[in-house]
């Protein structure tokens, strides 16, 4: 009987090994989850809000809703220069302040770190709280891990009422009637300029 010689497969990769190597090569070309998150959050303020929520409210589940989508869309249009003045009137506890006074300025610094912000409220303590929340978000591991090469706070000016980044952008918190003499802003935010009691007064309004 005649037998054909069989070539030795010793030292040669099996089919499954080849497939695994190909799979690993393809996987290395794909962006990681963190890279995708960074890209989505950089492009879309709505996506940024969804991720930043866990930094600011870690013990409260995020519940997305159409009004968040709508406000985020309008704020992004302001960022793009398509809207010059924007008024938002919604009931309390609907995330207006968190979106407008905290998350939006932090997101805008990713696009334009040199921007200068002035935020005012009827109460200085409320403005300070928003400024502190902004600073905590910007200094968080999540934010710095994605955009730390773009946004870094300056050590020379880093207070609750005013902090500055290394690109010379700053965020100032004040109250209605407070002083911001000598300071200009690319964007000015008036968040709750009247307290609830004064809002119903014709003279004060």
């Amino acid at each position: 009987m005649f037998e054909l010689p069989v070539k030795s497969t010793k030292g040669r990769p099996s089919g499954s090994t080849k497939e695994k190597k190909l799979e690993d090569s393809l996987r290395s070309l794909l962006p990681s989850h963190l890279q995708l998150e960074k890209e989505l959050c950089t492009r879309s303020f709505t996506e940024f809000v969804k991720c930043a929520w866990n930094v600011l409210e870690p013990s409260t589940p995020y519940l997305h809703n159409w009004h968040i989508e709508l406000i985020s869309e309008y704020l992004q249009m302001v960022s793009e220069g398509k809207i010059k003045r924007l008024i938002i009137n919604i009931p309390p506890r609907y995330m207006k302040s968190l979106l407008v006074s905290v998350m939006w300025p932090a997101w805008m610094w990713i696009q334009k770190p040199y921007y200068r912000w002035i935020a005012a409220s009827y109460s200085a303590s409320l403005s300070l709280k928003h400024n502190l929340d902004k600073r905590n978000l910007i200094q968080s591991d999540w934010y710095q891990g994605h955009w730390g090469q773009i946004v870094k706070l300056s050590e020379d000016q880093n207070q609750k009422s005013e902090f500055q980044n290394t690109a010379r952008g700053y965020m100032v918190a004040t109250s209605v009637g407070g002083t911001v003499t000598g300071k200009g802003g690319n964007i000015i935010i008036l968040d709750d300029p009247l307290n609830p009691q004064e809002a119903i007064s014709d003279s004060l309004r």
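The two ends are 108 Å apart (CA to CA). The mean pLDDT is 87.
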